[in-house]
Design a protein that fits this description.
By secondary structure, this protein is an alpha+beta fold. The chain contains five helices and nine strands.
C-alpha cells in the first residue's frame, strides 16, 4: 500500500483551528495546493501556540503553464534529480510534489500565528522580523553568504528598527492597520494583528512581487466562526 499523502492530516487539523487561517486572495498567478508548514506548542492544558504557513506555486504566465517563462532557475543537479525515474512506483502525490519544484514557489509566504495566552504573544514587529528572517535563512542562503550548518554570523538578520508601522493591509476586503519591512534587498514583508491572540504575516521574494497581489482573506478550509477584528 502506498504511503498516505501527508497533506491529508494537515487538512483535517485545519478544519478545527481555534483561529481563522489567512491566505492570499485567489489570483491567476498564485496556486494554493494545500502545502502547509505547521508548528504547535502544547502544555498540560493542551495547545498553547500554533502557526500555520502556506506555500504557493507562482505562475508568471498563468494562461499557459507550459510556457518556459514559468520555470524556476534550477542547477543541473536539481534538474537531474527531478528527471530521474526510480525503479519503484511512487504515489501520485509524491510525483506531483516533486514536479512542483520545477516552478518558483512563494515559500511559506503567508503565516497565521495564534497564542492561547495573549500576554505571551510577541509584538507584531518581532513576528514580522522572525518570519522574514525565516524565509531569508531558508531561501537566500547563497545570496547572504551563509555557510552550511551552525554559525555565529547574525549580521544578515533584519533589525526591528526596519519595521514601518504606518501602512495598511487588505484583509477580507477591508484595509487594516499593518506594519511592513520594505528595506531588505531580497524580500518584502507585511503583517497585521487581527485579534489580541492572532497575527498574520506575509513574506514575498522581491523578484516575485510584480506577479503577486498582496491581499488576504480567510482561507476556505478554516471553519472557525471568528473573524478578524
Amino acid at each position: 500500500m502506498p504511503p498516505p499523502d501527508p497533506r491529508d492530516a494537515h487538512r483535517e487539523l485545519l478544519q478545527v483551528l481555534a483561529f481563522p487561517l489567512m491566505g492570499l486572495v485567489p489570483q491567476p498567478t498564485v496556486e494554493d495546493h494545500d502545502s502547509f508548514a505547521i508548528v504547535e506548542v502544547k502544555d498540560a492544558q493542551g495547545r498553547s501556540q500554533m502557526s500555520v504557513s502556506i506555500t504557493y506555486t507562482l505562475w508568471r504566465n498563468p494562461a499557459d503553464h507550459d510556457d518556459p517563462v514559468n520555470l524556476a532557475e534550477l542547477d543541473e543537479q536539481t534538474r537531474e534529480s527531478l528527471d530521474f525515474e526510480p525503479p519503484w512506483e511512487r504515489p501520485a502525490w509524491l510525483i506531483e510534489g516533486a514536479q512542483r519544484f520545477r516552478y518558483p514557489m512563494l515559500w511559506e509566504a503567508v503565516r497565521t500565528s495564534w497564542h492561547r495566552d495573549e500576554a505571551e504573544h510577541s509584538p507584531l514587529a518581532q513576528q514580522l522580523v522572525d518570519h522574514a528572517d525565516h524565509v531569508l535563512r531558508n531561501q537566500f542562503r547563497e545570496e547572504l553568504g551563509l555557510p552550511r550548518g551552525p554559525h555565529s554570523d547574525l549580521a544578515w538578520q533584519i533589525s526591528p528598527s526596519a519595521v514601518n508601522s504606518a501602512v495598511t493591509l487588505e484583509v477580507d476586503g477591508a484595509e487594516v492597520a499593518a506594519s511592513e519591512i520594505d528595506t531588505d534587498p531580497f524580500v518584502y514583508a507585511i503583517g497585521a494583528r487581527l485579534a489580541p491572540d492572532v497575527v498574520t504575516t506575509v513574506v514575498i521574494a522581491r523578484d516575485h512581487l510584480p506577479y503577486v497581489r498582496i491581499a488576504l482573506a480567510v482561507r476556505e478550509c478554516s471553519t472557525s466562526d471568528r473573524l478578524p477584528a
